[in-house]
Structures are given as structure tokens and as C-alpha cells.
Amino acid sequence: MIDNASLERHIGREEQSEDRADPERLRRLSALLDRRWSPADGMPPLGHFLLFPPNEIQSRIGADGHPLRDPGGMLPAISLPRRMWAGSRIQFEGIVEPGARLVRRSRLVSAVPKSGRSGHMVFCTVAHEIRATSGGPVLISEQQDIVYREAHQGPGLAPRPVMQPEFRAEHFSGRTVGPVELFRYSALTFNAHRIHYDREYARDAEGYEGLVVHGPFLATLMFDHLLQAAGGRRVLEFSFRAVSPSFDGEDLRFGATIEGDKVRLFVTNPVGLAMTGQARLAGS
């Protein structure tokens, strides 16, 4: 049962955390993307996803690997057990220099219950603003969508939505993500959700046919493809939306089409569309 009154009471709650754009973490992200890195290269693709990681103590970690839900926290303690990062809309308003000390202010802006073919869900949107700890303008602003869903039902695996891209891409690349890459990204982000490394749990508890590729990791790979297609032009805005899960060992295909300063993007897996994206570039 979803408590709508509780959802409404949480809207507007905030939290704040501090971190450093640690060059060693950024170097390791670049290594995961199969390239060498130095601080002179600037932030690697979506490097800010590595910052402000969860730091809950071990006794407060749940059976799925996520921190236990806290009624006093910014996010509601929603009873629906499955949680995923469904998408983000990001504006790169300034430059985050490697080594910079940063502060992130986060605020819950909406919590909307919905019902569909897959059962009851709650969609939460959190607004993040990242600044230097010394003050100054916003460097990165982001609206992050988080969805909570019912537990997987039935003895079989959960079916994947089957959709196809809505446009023909001009720039393509491909990649296969295996268990090692998933482990390395989980370690980089301190993400202990078991669907990314515990095959038996992913299958038996959540109904997935394999280890799940992290949504933010898939978005990072899509952003990396965007940078290659954009030929050095700076990305001002980027958004992504998860459509269907992708699993370890699958062939992933990345597509992009650039029209002036606007970019349309997609990722496909063997079933169909896995993620969509859009971006806005600085002038050529």
C-alpha cells in the first residue's frame, strides 16, 4: 500500500554532501573506458556520477545491497522493493576541475505513484546542484528520476519491453559489457546492488536473466559515444532514459545523429531499445 500523504510530506526535503573530484577515481573510470588519463584531460564522461557515493554503514545495508530506507531521509521509505535509476537530465553549466572540492545539494521535487501493466510504481525526481565548496555558481545541475517497483512475481524471468529506435543513426559504435566491467563500475561508485554482481540473486529474486548493466554505466558509455561523434565540441546538456535492461555478455550498439547543436542517441541490445538520449552541443 502506497501512502500518498507520506509521499507529499517528503517533497521539498533536502540533503547536502561534500566530496572531491578525486583524480584517482577519475583515472580509474577512464581505465574502465579503455584509455589513459591525466588531470589535464579534464573530467572523463559523466565523471560526476562517481562523486558523492553512498556511505551507509554495513549494518544498514539491506538484502538487495541498497541502504535500508529511512523514514527520516530525503527519499520516502517506499515499501515497493525494487529500485532503479530511470534517467536524468543534466546541464553542464561550468567546468569541474579534477581535484576540486565540491558540495552537492539535493532536493526531492516530486514523488508520483502510478499503476501499469507491471503493477504499482512510484516515480521520484531529485534535483541536484553541484558547486565548489568555496561557493560560486552551479557547475552541474541534474534532475534524476528514480522508480520504485513491485517485486518480481512468478517462477519465470521478467519479460523485457521490446521497442526499436525511432530514428536512423549516422554514427555507430559497439561494445560488450562483461562481469568484470560491472564489478569495476560497482566498485567505483560503491554501488552494492546485487543485480550487478550476484547472478543467482538477479535471476531468482528479481527475475533478470543475467547480471544487469548499471543504468548510469550504460549512460556513461552512451555519453562516451556522443563525445566521439561530436568531434571535440563541448556538451552543454545531456539526458537519458532507460527503456529496457541489458545484461552481461550482450552485444550493445550505440547510435547518434547530430543536427546542428542537437543530438539524438540510443543504445540497443539484442532485444531492441535499451536507452534513449538527447544532447545539446556548443557551437562548432
TrEMBL record:
Gene3D superfamilies: Hotdog Thioesterase (3.10.129.10)
SUPFAM superfamilies: Thioesterase/thiol ester dehydrase-isomerase
Residue segments, region Disordered: 1-23
Superkingdom of source: Bacteria
Every FAS1-like dehydratase domain range: 77-139
Oxidoreductase found in the keyword field: no
Keyword check for Lyase: yes
One Pfam entry name: FAS1_DH_region
Its EC number(s): 4.2.1.153
Keywords: Lyase
Entry GO MF terms: (3R)-hydroxyacyl-[acyl-carrier-protein] dehydratase activity
Record's protein name: 3-methylfumaryl-CoA hydratase
Organism: Sphingosinicella soli
